[in-house]
Amino acid sequence: MQDNSLAHVLMVAYNYPPLENTGITRTVKFAKYLPEFGYCAVILTTQTYGDLPDDAATLTFRADDLLGSFKRTYLAFKQKQGTLNRHANIRLLPPGSRLEQWKSTYLVPDPKIIWYPPALRLAQKIIRTHPIRRLYSTSPPETSHLIAMKLKQETGLPWVADFRDGWLFEPHISTRLTSRLRYRLEAGLERKVLLSADRVITVNQVIADDMARRCPGAAAKISVIPNGFDQDDFAPLHRQATRPDKFRVVHTGALSLSREGRTISGLLQALRAMQASQLDMMARLEILMVGDLTAAETRMVEQSDVKQYFRLTGPLSYPEALQHQIDADILLLVTAPGKAGATTSKLFEYLASGRPILALSSPSDAGDLISTLGAGVVVEPADAAGIQQALQAFYQQWQAGQLPTHRDARVCQFDRRELTRQLACLFDETAVA
């Protein structure tokens, strides 16, 4: 509901509920806590994934596009046929399909660019009818920044650009680096965004440093506001009694669906070696994979000779996933090899759970944070011997009742309320034209 005592912020965020993925959480939590710091979020998002009953009350506006209309029609038909589960509205085309590859290769800066015209028109209408005093955009997709930049040019409103991933640093669209023409084009767009925004925020220092190096003129305006966890999400959860004869390793979320290159092949290799050695722990080991896996990832597990150690739940609700984290003996984190900027939002939920973490990660921001907080063990994703050694060490601690079960006090700095306060401070520093 509109509160004119608060400064209104138009938040351009393609990824937003009812879409279910980790990309929505940062914006949702900012919107939740901004009123405590004098700001009201007005959301501009896509109509592609449908709407919610409280859209009007939460000042959520949805812009449509042709592909989104086709997608909703197709999904409605599939749901009527009973062949679609409740999570399938997230993806129309299978990952790696020719059309998906074509869109990623030829639509610049990303496949969501077709959303730009209707989203811009709706944004202009919102600004005419609501007391908007600030602009905020978040990527990926980077199309959101192009919309906000145009609005900034038209209105002079202060603008904060939020990068949840790098644009050209370890990009989620690999063709940005393989095509010289595309790289030059997007480098120009990125530079224009960085120089036009009043403030720029990223999720970690690695991405911030890369931006400052490639665009020195924007360095002074770049800040880091990391991802985090919401204490309200954990408040109703309590560790539930699980089978005492099982040593439970839990992974929540997607693998390559979230970031190309994430794989548990090193873990499978370690399990084969442990099975061949007939270690006692293998009779008690259970690895729970909670979330979306690709068909290829599911086959890799189910056709392996260590499939008996796995339980695949498929997608679950967010509270259910958090409950599995709380109930875990250890938590499994997997990042893409060679990605120094990897800091998934899931990591901060893991830290908040207080459970020890086995991170399969190359040198990265995520690994550095785990090591700094003493929150677990970091092993290269392909280091099967290292993974085996870490699992055995954790198992011995579990047998002795010595696994950590508390949250480190330093984790409180990543509470979503505190992170939103930092964003509000950046809004405070910008002046309305």
Please outline what is shown here:
The chain has 433 residues and is of the alpha/beta class. It has 16 helices and 13 strands. About 2% of the residues have low confidence.
| Largest sheet composition | 7 strands, parallel
Q: Any low-confidence stretches, pLDDT <50, length ≥5?
A: 83-90
Measured between the Cα atoms of the first and last residue, the distance is: 25 Å
Portion of residues within helices: 25-40%
List keywords for this structure.
433 residues; alpha/beta; Rossmann fold; 2 domains; 7-stranded parallel β-sheet; 6-stranded parallel β-sheet; 16 helices; 13 strands
Element layout with pairings:
Elements: E1 7-12, H1 25-33, E2 39-46, E3 60-63, H2 66-80, H3 98-106, H4 116-129, E4 132-139, H5 143-155, E5 159-163, H6 175-178, H7 180-196, E6 199-202, H8 205-214, E7 222-224, H9 231-234, E8 247-252, H10 265-276, E9 285-290, H11 295-302, E10 310-314, H12 318-327, E11 330-334, H13 345-353, E12 357-360, H14 365-373, E13 376-379, H15 384-399, H16 416-429
